[in-house]
Amino acid sequence: MDRYAQRMLTPRILWGALITSTFVYLYVLQVAAPEDADPEPMMLPALGVAALVAGVLSVFLPAYLHGRGAMAAELEVEEVPDPDASVMFRDQTPTVRRFAKPDAVVSKGMALYMTPLILGMALGEAVAIFGFVLGVLGFELPMILPFFVASWVLMGLRFPRWSSVLGPLERAQKARFVPD
């Protein structure tokens, strides 16, 4: 995968920038949050429910979209002898399906991956933004910190990896990715 390492740079920079933005929100709250605000108590459960919905969507919606895109992808697949299979006492060598053009698979995989990545990260960041809004309204740090922690977990799970890019294609097409 070293040959394709440059292709992973943009998603990782985007991931890092969006994670960093949540720390900026906390910093802004510490520097500029109103100290004498009287928060409306109903805002905590209201924004908590909104954050929960955004968090659930950040997990399931991108996965659904990525899976649908992978199913619709038209990639050339070939049958080749399985290098890991034992051929002792067999009349025929077992085969596996693999992608015929690895470069096309990486290009298609990256194209299909970016939208779910951005959508998932934005929805994960929305959880922190709900916490930020609560902080601006005057809620104390112990009340808003769980929003940020949940956001960091949701976003941390989305760290761009090749298995996230190519895995849905391999599962949908029932073929292995074997780099040249």
Radius of gyration: 22 Å
Query: Strand fraction band?
Result: 5-15%
Strand order of the largest sheet: 1-2
- Secondary-structure content class: mainly alpha
Task: Point out poorly predicted stretches.
Answer: none
Question: Would you count the extended β strands for me?
Answer: 2
In helices, the fraction of residues equals 55-70%
What is the residue-averaged pLDDT? 91
Structure in words:
The protein has 180 residues and is mainly alpha-helical. The chain contains five helices and two strands. Helix 3 crosses helix 5. The longest helix is centred in the middle third of the chain and has 36 residues, at 102-137. It is elongated and about 80 Å long. The model has no long low-confidence stretch (mean pLDDT 91).
Write a brief structural summary.
This protein has helices at residues 9-32, 43-72, 102-137, 141-156, 162-173, and strands at residues 77-81, 95-99. The protein is mainly α and 180 residues long. It starts with 8 loop residues before the first helix and ends in a 7-residue tail after the last helix.
Structure characteristics:
180 residues; 5 helices; elongated
What order do the helices and strands come in, and which of them pair?
Elements: H1 9-32, H2 43-72, E1 77-81, E2 95-99, H3 102-137, H4 141-156, H5 162-173
Antiparallel strand pairs: 1-2
Helix pairs in contact: 1-3, 1-4, 2-3, 2-4, 2-5, 3-4, 3-5
